[in-house]
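Input.
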Amino acid sequence: MPAREIVDGIDSRSEVGAPFERWWLAVRDEAGKVVSVAMRTAPFKPYPIFALPMSDEAARALAVALHERGEVLGGVNGALPAVEVIAAETAGLAGGDPEVHHSIRLWEATEVTVPPPPPGRLRRATEDDAVLVLEWFTAFHIEADEQAGREPDLSSGEHNTRRASSCGSGRAPSGCGSCRRARSRT
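Output.
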């Protein structure tokens, strides 16, 4: 749970309606040493799991264990080849074939040119900045999807987990004047 939610006493996870409980697991070797981890915490459809590198045997065992407890995996993110093995085993157990939605590459910066500093000064963001920050965040995801050759999809992904405004404006509650006024009256 994000630190902000802990402070505010909010669990946005309850608003997501995910068909499973969040979980984290450790993969151990024969000696009991942790050799990998996996988790299912994504609050967005298709609620993928995230897995770090692990042996093929461990990846298959994870897929089987999740299948046996009735957990349907809509996606797998993380390190190859572990996620390929988990996806193939999961699809096979369900009588299907895995499908790659998209792949992400890792790039190495071998040289960095520091840009000139922008005008102005650094300051802490406030609630009044929420609308602007959300606009930047949304624009980033649109541009990232386009750069990756995907059709922009603002209805899914981590960027679509904000709570709806209480006034129906579609803005984040913290960035909506009507919602702030309603909160100050309660």
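Residues 127-185 form one domain.
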